[in-house]
Write a structure and sequence with these properties.
Elements (H helix, E strand, L loop, with lengths): L1 E6 L2 E6 L2 E12 L3 E12 L3 E5 L6 H8 L7 E6 L2 E2 L4 H7 E4 L11 H11 L4 H14 L15 H13 L5 E5 L7 H16 L3 E6 L2 H9 L4 E6 L12 E5 L8
Parallel strand pairs: 5-10, 5-11, 8-9, 9-10
Antiparallel strand pairs: 1-2, 3-4, 3-6, 6-7, 11-12
């Protein structure tokens, strides 16, 4: 199903079923090294899509392309109907990215980090404070909200980074290995928060090298998760195949 949008007299057909559409994406780095080749998948609006693959398979490269940090060598993709190359700034206005490498200012507290991120995105101080509290509480970080990030554990810092992007209210959220390095309890807290974001109508694209991450998604109540496996280029990468994981609907979901 498509909706027609008019932007500065330019007609854009928006596929309301898929928030992200990627077709034959490829990226070649210097020296002729392929980061990814022939990556194709669609991410349904209002759902979690998981990109599975071993380290070095190109998951981060794929996310970097879709979030407009890298330009693809070949192929095409759209986010919310906007072409990632032609409509870069329109895409950036609607997305949030949590990268694999934590880049929090170690002198800030968790509360300052989330508030500062939202204010930088144009939020008022009042609204930023409200949303920061909501998501720090959701990720069980409120009790340490004023502790300097430098004094937090690695898992706590990871959850602060996740809280920053979840609080943004972005339509599409990219999470690159958001549960890497977290203990079981920390992973559960993150997935509980992701479930809340999906209920608010957002779309999440998440990368992981662990199939159990998709299983946790089912256990935390997500009705459907699409998992796409990305093989390494050394293994003569084929078109990624989709693994559809679905939890049976129960009366608790109603």
């Amino acid at each position: 199903m498509y909706h027609t949008c008019y932007l500065h007299e330019k007609v854009i057909l928006v596929n309301v079923m898929y928030a992200i559409m990627a077709e034959s994406l490829a990226k070649m780095y210097r020296g002729g090294v392929w980061g990814i080749r022939n990556v194709s998948f669609n991410a349904k609006t209002g759902s979690i899509t998981v990109l599975l693959g071993p380290n070095g398979a190109g998951k981060t490269t794929t996310v970097s392309i879709l979030s407009t940090l890298l330009k693809p060598t070949k192929g095409r993709a759209s986010v919310l109907g906007y072409d990632i190359v032609r409509d870069t700034w329109k895409v950036r206005e609607r997305i949030a990215l949590c990268s694999q490498d934590i880049a929090d200012d170690v002198n800030w507290s968790p509360l300052e980090a989330v508030k500062g991120y939202l204010i930088a995105r144009g939020w008022s101080i009042r609204d930023a404070t409200r949303e920061a509290r909501r998501w720090l509480e959701e990720l069980e970080l409120w009790d340490i909200r004023n502790r300097p990030v430098a004094r937090l554990s690695g898992g706590q810092r990871k959850r602060v980074a996740v809280a920053m992007v979840l609080a943004s209210n972005a339509d599409v959220i990219f999470l690159d290995e958001p549960t890497s390095g977290l203990d079981v309890e920390g992973k559960y807290r993150v997935w509980k928060a992701l479930r809340a974001v999906i209920k608010d109508g957002a779309t999440i694209l998440l990368t992981t090298h662990d199939m159990k991450v998709a299983e946790i998604a089912l256990l935390t109540g997500c009705r459907a998760v699409d998992a796409y496996y990305i093989a390494t280029t050394k293994a003569r990468q084929r078109r990624p195949h989709a693994v559809r994981l679905r939890r049976e609907h129960t009366t608790e979901d109603s």
